[in-house]
Design goal:
Elements (H helix, E strand, L loop, with lengths): L2 H9 L15 H11 L3 H8 L3 E3 L3 E2 L12 E2 L5 E3 L5 E2 L9 H6 L8 E2 L3 H6 L6 E4 L5 H9 L1 H10 L1 H26 L5 E5 L3 E2 L2 E2 L3 H21 L3 E5 L8 H7 L3 E5 L8 H8 L4 E6 L1 H6 L3 H15 L5 E5 L10 H14 L4
Parallel strand pairs: 1-7, 7-8, 8-11, 11-12, 12-13, 13-14
Antiparallel strand pairs: 2-6, 3-4, 4-5, 9-10
Helix pairs in contact: 6-7, 6-8, 7-8, 8-9, 9-10, 13-14
């Protein structure tokens, strides 16, 4: 099988030739890995055995000068500063009325250039599983615009206010992804979106709040991907197992970055309860294994995860977080992928 066939077979909950492999990386780790191996981008992905490739739209709007002290601005006008993505410096809608929410300068999906996506995807000649569509972190954007505490208060006190904010955010993301799919869906395989609904100790909200405020938007995005014959996979960190039944009901085909160190994310339980209903992607512990372990320990722990997760297909192997951090030893990451190739074979 080629990588695309391997991945799509796993999504059908059938056993391919081996467990597909996923490599997500921070730019800092990727540069370190290139220096350590002497390989450039595509050659390094081949060495690792990554079965996926990803394509992006680009923003065409001219950049607005940042305020002093900020390092970035989201598409919704929230300035941020700090390590990595940083933290919002203000919450523009924290004092808004619902009328002001509707009058807010929401971005236009036409601001994203989708003209090169098909060409970018087709250069892989159908060999790899291609990820596309807008990342669509609508929950995080609502937190940025309101602040987390206020967002949760308003879920109880002014639910229609939260509905309005989320509707505008998801209208934008759905509009961008529809333009991407109109331009290039036949060259794509997976609509990949991201929202973190979990913490180390469980979900960030109850299943009832999730049903009321989040489920309709996940379902909308899943339906959009399926309308273009794409699989839909959600990146979600943390201990979110109480929300998985709704994620399946919403139409998601895959869940990415399973974190076994979080509450409720026991791998045996997840595989037994949900493994025939949704694909799991990740599950090899980034924190306690990849960062702190030795190559020998990584190899052994990867084998143990594969023994639990690979049965019957429906599993992609990789780190328990998409963003392999710079402090992760390169030799440990290579050991993980070598172990996936060795122990991930199906009889």
């Amino acid at each position: 099988m080629n990588p695309k066939e391997r991945v799509m077979t796993a999504f059908e909950h059938c056993a391919p030739d081996r467990v597909p492999a996923w490599c997500g990386s921070s730019p800092e780790f990727w540069e370190k890995a290139k220096q350590a191996t002497g390989l450039q981008d595509e050659a390094l992905r081949v060495r690792i055995g990554d079965d996926f490739r990803r394509v992006f739209a680009t923003c065409t709007e001219p950049g607005i000068p940042l305020s002093p002290g900020s390092t970035s601005r989201t598409i919704f006008g929230v300035e941020r500063d700090g390590v990595g993505y940083g933290q919002p410096l203000s919450h523009p809608l924290s004092k808004a009325t619902i009328t002001e929410v509707h009058a807010y300068p929401w971005p236009d999906p036409l601001c994203m250039d989708v003209s090169q996506i098909r060409r970018e995807a087709e250069r892989f000649q159908g060999k790899y599983a291609i990820l596309g569509g807008d990342w669509s972190p609508f929950f995080h954007d609502a937190v940025d615009l309101l602040g987390m505490e206020l967002l949760f208060f308003k879920m109880y006190d002014e639910p229609e206010f939260v509905d309005a904010v989320l509707q505008h955010i998801v209208d934008y993301y759905a509009g961008v992804s529809q333009r991407i799919f109109d331009a290039a869906a036949s060259a794509l395989d997976i609509f990949f979106i991201g929202n973190d609904f979990g913490t180390q100790n469980g979900p960030v909200m109850s299943p009832s709040l999730f049903r009321r405020f989040i489920f309709p938007h996940l379902e909308r995005l899943a339906r959009l991907g399926h309308a273009y014959n794409l699989k839909v996979m959600l990146h979600c960190c943390g201990g979110y197992s109480p929300l998985i039944p709704q994620m399946i009901e919403a139409g998601l085909d895959g869940l990415h970055a399973v974190q076994p160190s979080c509450k409720g994310m026991d791998l045996t339980m997840l595989k037994r309860t949900f493994g025939d209903k949704i694909l799991f992607n990740g599950a090899i512990d980034s924190h306690h294994v990849l960062i702190r372990g030795t190559p020998e320990f990584v190899r052994d722990e990867t084998r143990k995860v594969l023994e639990i997760m690979k049965t019957g297909g429906g599993y992609v192997a990789g780190a328990s977080h998409d963003y392999i951090l710079e402090e992760t030893p390169v030799e440990n990451v290579l050991a993980m992928f070598d172990a996936i190739a060795e122990f991930g074979r199906y009889n």
